[in-house]
Amino acid sequence: MADLSNDIRLAVDSGEARLGINGVKESISSNTAKVVVVAVPNKQEFLQDLVHLCKLSGTKLLQFKGTSMELGAVCGKPYSVAALSVISPGNSNILNESY
Question: What is the model's pTM?
């Protein structure tokens, strides 16, 4: 099994990803999101909202087992990232792996 952190970083660096709650919701609504990754220790209402949107659109939802600061670091950003959506996976296997 591949490492989710490596695939997230590859998707952000070599593909196309939207970072942040608003960008993720927009990409789900426009059906461009292939997969959504959310940091687990988020606010429950935020997490439930994303789970609901992903179910409605048929978008795969992955839970990152770290904090939003750790997810930001994985994405190569100096700030917290509560969620991200992968629009184009680039060189990553994030769409093909089961996490």
Answer: 0.91
Q: Domains along the chain?
A: 4-88 (3.30.1330.30)
What average pLDDT does this structure show over 74-99?
A: 92
Q: Report whether 50 contacts 36 (CB < 8 A).
A: yes
CB distance 81 to 75 below 8 Å: yes
For helices 44-57 and 21-29, angle between their N-to-C axes, nearest 10 degrees: 20
Alpha-carbon span 50 to 76, nearest angstrom: 23
Give the tens place of pLDDT for each residue, 11-33.
999 999 999 989 999 999 999 99
- From residue 82, alpha-carbon distances to 1, 23, 77, 91, 96 in Å are 24, 11, 12, 23, 23
3-state secondary structure of 92: coil
4, two tokens:
């989710």
Residue entry with tokens 């687990």? 40
